[in-house]
């Protein structure tokens, strides 16, 4: 490829913020999130309950429901066919180097980068991206499957609507899909209802549905949390195989560091609506940079074989009701110092391909100087 898009991440999220406006308060569920995932890569998103993982997943394809709303940020989806198709469908909303349109452009067709900004896309465009380009698998399979239709009919329906398949072609493809996710005797299971499937088989069926339209990106939000460990391990292995076969970009959300170790290539650690560390998985486990990451790791049984009681991080994730002006982890942080309560940390490089947002860094600088790095306003920085 000559347009340079091929070596960029298929999905990159920049400065994404989503808030819920309730009668009582505004919940800044995610603030200024950056993420990226490449084809064939698994990005793990980890954090305790309430850290904003699911809101991040929902924000990606316009699934945030009122009273929630995206406030800011870009979601750059780079898939040449989609860029071309949406540019044709929304000619007034395309920005090219020769034709600068109004500010409501969401298709960017430049010489060095071609993408669709899903944060600015209209719902009609998002609807065609959702499921087709970016598919999701959620924790509770029964909530995502319709109890009154057979599993086969649900898969076939997708293929008929999104792919214009006829009935027999859809049946054939549905059998292949169930087979590819390791469901034995697929032609027979196709005629069964979701409740006739075990939990693990339901989750496999959901993965088959997610893959029906050949997505580029698969987002899995705690897909194995409800399953027992043996079945969980089988599903993780399945996802790993499917990803390799299809060169999928996989975004895998979990609160479980053990699962992250199994499946992720790179990891983004979330806390109270922010990403606090980005790192390759080996580096994160060997030398976690952010004190929160250290705390999460210390609570994995396999990392502490000798301890009878696993250390946990005291306290809970706060519900963020304002934009961050300080370190949100400071109240629970064993390494916190005075400035942590006044200065909002920015992401700084802490190694190859890794950053952390913590006032302890840059580590090689005297603290005063390090603090000045964090105090800089966004406009001073060359964004
Ligand atoms: N519909 C909503 N209305 C108000 N606040 C919401 C809503 N949905 C999510 N939130 C808030 O957004 C924040 C992030 O929630 P989110 O569900 O993304 O967390 P999570 O990391 O997925 O947690 P879990 O591991 O429990 O699934 C929480 O403070 C939550 O209370
Ligand atoms: Ni969640």
TrEMBL record:
<dbReference type="InterPro" id="IPR003593">
    <property type="entry name" value="AAA+_ATPase"/>
</dbReference>
<feature type="domain" description="ABC transporter">
    <location>
        <begin position="11"/>
        <end position="297"/>
    </location>
</feature>
<dbReference type="InterPro" id="IPR050388">
    <property type="entry name" value="ABC_Ni/Peptide_Import"/>
</dbReference>
<comment type="subunit">
    <text>The complex is composed of two ATP-binding proteins (NikD and NikE), two transmembrane proteins (NikB and NikC) and a solute-binding protein (NikA).</text>
</comment>
<keyword id="KW-1278">Translocase</keyword>
<dbReference type="GO" id="GO:0016887">
    <property type="term" value="F:ATP hydrolysis activity"/>
</dbReference>
<dbReference type="GO" id="GO:0015413">
    <property type="term" value="F:ABC-type nickel transporter activity"/>
</dbReference>
<dbReference type="InterPro" id="IPR013563">
    <property type="entry name" value="Oligopep_ABC_C"/>
</dbReference>
<dbReference type="GO" id="GO:0015833">
    <property type="term" value="P:peptide transport"/>
</dbReference>
<dbReference type="Pfam" id="PF08352">
    <property type="entry name" value="oligo_HPY"/>
</dbReference>
<dbReference type="InterPro" id="IPR027417">
    <property type="entry name" value="P-loop_NTPase"/>
</dbReference>
<feature type="compositionally biased region" description="Basic and acidic residues">
    <location>
        <begin position="364"/>
        <end position="383"/>
    </location>
</feature>
<keyword id="KW-1003">Cell membrane</keyword>
<protein>
    <recommendedName>
        <fullName>Nickel import system ATP-binding protein NikD</fullName>
        <ecNumber>7.2.2.11</ecNumber>
    </recommendedName>
</protein>
<dbReference type="GO" id="GO:0005886">
    <property type="term" value="C:plasma membrane"/>
</dbReference>
<keyword id="KW-0406">Ion transport</keyword>
<feature type="region of interest" description="Disordered">
    <location>
        <begin position="362"/>
        <end position="383"/>
    </location>
</feature>
<keyword id="KW-0472">Membrane</keyword>
<dbReference type="InterPro" id="IPR003439">
    <property type="entry name" value="ABC_transporter-like_ATP-bd"/>
</dbReference>
<dbReference type="InterPro" id="IPR017871">
    <property type="entry name" value="ABC_transporter-like_CS"/>
</dbReference>
<keyword id="KW-0067">ATP-binding</keyword>
<keyword id="KW-0813">Transport</keyword>
<keyword id="KW-0547">Nucleotide-binding</keyword>
<dbReference type="GO" id="GO:0005524">
    <property type="term" value="F:ATP binding"/>
</dbReference>
<dbReference type="Pfam" id="PF00005">
    <property type="entry name" value="ABC_tran"/>
</dbReference>
């Amino acid at each position: 490829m000559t347009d340079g898009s091929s070596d960029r991440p298929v999905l990159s999220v920049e400065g994404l913020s989503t808030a819920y406006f309730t009668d009582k308060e505004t919940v800044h569920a995610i603030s200024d999130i950056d993420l990226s995932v490449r084809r064939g890569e698994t990005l793990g998103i980890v954090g305790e309950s309430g850290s904003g993982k699911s809101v991040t997943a929902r924000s990606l394809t316009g699934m945030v429901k009122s009273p929630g709303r995206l406030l800011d940020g870009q979601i750059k989806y780079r898939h040449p066919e989609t860029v071309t198709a949406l540019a044709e469908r929304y000619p007034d909303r395309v920005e090219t180097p020769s034709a600068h349109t109004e500010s409501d452009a969401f298709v960017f067709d430049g010489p060095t980068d071609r993408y669709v900004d899903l944060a600015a896309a209209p719902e009609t465009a998002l609807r065609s991206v959702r499921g087709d380009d970016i598919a999701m698998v959620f924790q509770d399979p029964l909530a995502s499957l319709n109890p009154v239709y057979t599993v086969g009919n649900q898969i076939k329906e997708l293929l008929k609507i999104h792919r214009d398949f006829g009935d027999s072609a859809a049946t054939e493809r549905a059998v292949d899909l169930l087979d590819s996710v390791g469901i034995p005797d697929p032609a027979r299971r196709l005629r069964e209802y979701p409740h006739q499937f075990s939990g693990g088989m339901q989750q496999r069926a959901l993965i088959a549905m997610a893959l029906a339209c050949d997505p580029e990106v698969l987002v899995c939000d705690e897909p194995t949390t409800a399953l027992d460990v043996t079945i969980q391990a089988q599903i993780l292995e399945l996802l790993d195989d499917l990803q390799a076969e299809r060169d999928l970009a996989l975004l895998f959300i979990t609160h479980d560091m053990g699962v992250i170790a199994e499946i992720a290539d790179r990891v983004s650690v979330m806390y109270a609506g922010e990403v606090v560390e980005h790192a390759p998985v080996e580096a994160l486990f060997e030398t976690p940079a952010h004190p929160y990451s250290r705390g999460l790791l210390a609570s994995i049984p396999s990392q502490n074989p000798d301890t009878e009681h696993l250390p946990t991080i005291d306290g809970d994730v706060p519900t963020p009701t304002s934009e961050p002006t300080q370190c949100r982890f400071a109240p629970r942080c064993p390494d916190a110092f005075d400035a942590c309560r006044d200065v909002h940390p920015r992401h700084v490089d802490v190694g190859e391909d890794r950053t952390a947002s913590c006032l302890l860094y840059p580590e090689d600088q005297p603290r005063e100087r390090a603090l000045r790095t964090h105090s800089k306003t966004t406009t001073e920085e060359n964004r």
